[in-house]
Amino acid sequence: MVLVACRCHGPGSTPPPSLLQRQLLHKQPTSSHRRRRRHLLTPASMADEDVAPRTASAYLDPSYWDERFGKEEHYEWFKDFSHFRHLLAPLISPSTSVLEVGCGNSRLGEELLREGVAGGITCVDLSPVAVQRMRDRLAEQGTEGVEVVVADMLDLPFERESFDLVVEKGTMDVLFVDSGDPWNPNPDTVDNVMKMLEGIHKVLKPEGIFVSITFGQPHFRRRFFEAPEFTWSVEWSTFGDGFHYFFYILKKGKRSLDSIADQHTQPTTPSINMFHEELESEDYIFRTNVDEFSKFVNQCCKCVV
Asked: Where, by residue number, does the polypeptide cross the bilayer (predicted)?
């Protein structure tokens, strides 16, 4: 297994780069290297169905998702339940009522049902194609206890305090694919993220929990999660090999100065760690695209020269 690690540090904190890092950062890519890189950023498992978009901004187009879900049977963004079960299972009980936002064609709802959740599982997606196909799948399996609804995550059609647990897995990341500077996202991105979070906060019960599974690092997400209108505490863990996926736990009504002060110390700038096996996954498009990666490498070159 080959690991490529690229880290960019602030002034005064740049560690001496290894020989391998210097070679990787300064070597000009040949045409074969560029072809290899494009191959790594193309999800091999999805090439046959041609469902991956040409550009990351296509993820913001509802028609893209309808077309994709018309072809694709199943895809798990940011790993399946088995990879984060140890983090999610302690938060649920048989009486837990669950809302999954942006379910797509994931099987998380069915996994939670098998885990013993009997308080009601509702899965929503903006795409009526995805919703109908999931309904058909559940009916064919004879699965009961999972309701699938067409709904916009920016305008959830549920009463206040309806759910004990709300889960999103890669859904919020869609809002960031065309956000501009990650340190200063464009106003439309900020507005949409806040609408999503406000809706989730509204439908959670007084001591409900919101779980966000994402690539978004704490120094990018906390500014949204810790907005003054929200009463939840913010905690996080990571899971995964190569890539570190972030697993945020936001507990409504539990916010305090202590809960914020006790968070882990985070780096002031992001890092990218890549295993070749992980790069075959479409999840990587949410982390960066080819052009953004080139800019990142160029920035790192300036840091280590």
From this structure: none
